Amino acid sequence: MSSRNLNTLSTDSLLSSTPTINKEEPIIGIDLGTTYSCVSIFKNNISSILENKNGKRTTPSIITCKENEILIGQAAENSMYTLSNFTIKDSKRFIGKFFHDPKVQKDIKYLSVKIIEDPYTKRPQYYIKHENQEARLFSPIDVAYLLLKDIKTFSEERIGGKIKKAVITVPAHFNNLQREETIEAAKKAGLEVYKIINEPTAAAIAYGYENPNVNERLVLIFDLGGGTFDVSIVKIKGNEYTVLASEGEEHLGGEDITQRLTDYALNIFKKKNNFENVDFYNQNNIKEYKVLQRIKKSSEEVKIQLSFAETVQYDIDSLYKEKDFNYEIKQSTLNEICNDLFNICIKKVDETLKKLNLTEDNIDEVVLVGGSCRIPKIKEMLIKKFSEKKVLKNINADEVIAQGAALIPFFGSKINDNIFLKQGKINEITSLSIGIEIANYKMEVIIKKGTLLPKINEKKSFNKTFKTQSKTSKNVLIKIFEGEGEYVWENHLLGKFTVSGFNNDNIIELEMILDHNSIITVIGKIKGEKEQKLIISKSDFYDEIEVKNYEEKLKFIKESREKIRQIFPDK
Questions:
Q1: What does pTM read for this prediction?
Q2: Which residue of 47, 322, 413, 486 shows the fewest CB atoms closer than 10 Å?
Q3: Is 92 among the catalytic positions?
């Protein structure tokens, strides 16, 4: 999210009016996952998964950049280890983040593809360089665009018609910028976003639709995917869904478990062969870094196998200096090295319950979502907490989010004869508080976490009037933050802008407008004066860019995207 003065900068706003729907046009539901993506369409009262061109119901969220083409999905996954330096995966963990974010830096050391800092945006960029070719740069938005375009293409082939609109799911704790960049990627892929909806909410909707019950139920959605974790408590009463509370970690998932296994296995290998002084994490040491990548590949396979077996064997021939790596790892070892990660998940469950003054006894059902929920220890901890009867293990954890997303356009809509959907209601909430910086670097909350989101095609307005401390300055810098910390440095800067031209009273009126996608627009004006419509929105990319660099930045991004389109042309 970034700031701009409408009098000096003009670009197309992403916050355009919500698309309308008619009975004839298809709207797909997309779960754009960290490791795998899934797409569904609602037809004949069933939310059906659309298979990709390989006949698979989920598609790897991976792209491989060859010299003259880009492989996407299954084709990219098949070549990711032979072309590891040119393969991009888990990009969702980088969307909406800055290069120097500690979580980004932690992830970078495990990647085979090179990551650099964009000098203009301060964001991570994938750097792809083939011999005798110019380097190509891919932002996380570019990667999401390519994945969504592929999903759109094979979905159109499956239904035999054009698709222009989609509901796209995001983690509940995606911030404003991450949501807007997801919308931007969809727009570039030729998809109009009907709604951005939180993944746990979509899962609850799919579950409730497939398991109708007139009685009121409290359902806890435990969503542990490849890169993110959310827990939400949803009240389901017939066909009305109300999200009561949500907690989570937007950077915790199966990838973190793989990293723990990788570190553990690498340390075992180093100790067994007296390689303690060798740096296997340095990308500049090509031979050594390849060792890390081979161990990580095996660790991903080991992680999956340990969901079904008590022991699994690492078996890597000639890993380094002709030394093989053969090592048996137990499920109990995985539990030990990932114990703190699993405890974070349970802690978030406790926090969500506490927020509503509930106990485990008040929860009627627990729905497991995301591939990482297959880890036996996770199931064991939840069963111990809630009982085996309540923890539902017969849900397809990989598909339920996409299925729920496909149902969204039909809630409260007259275009379908399904009474359940026609009379249905979805009440979703904000996952993070939004406020402004005040004296002593504190944040004053204007939109509280847990605020009910407006309905589709509606907006909510929140107003704040305040007096500046300075009696001499004619300008005031307003900074907008998102998060739960008392001080602004604990939170995420959404944007900033300056209101100028004060009279004597120095009073500012601030309006925050919240839309159904949990995205905000902020308008500031001087009390008693004609409105200075200074809007914070995501029409340009980033917080930290000065206005004087704006045109240069757009040129840089345009050139980078043009290189992508040269090898992956629009149809």
A1: 0.86
A2: 322
A3: yes
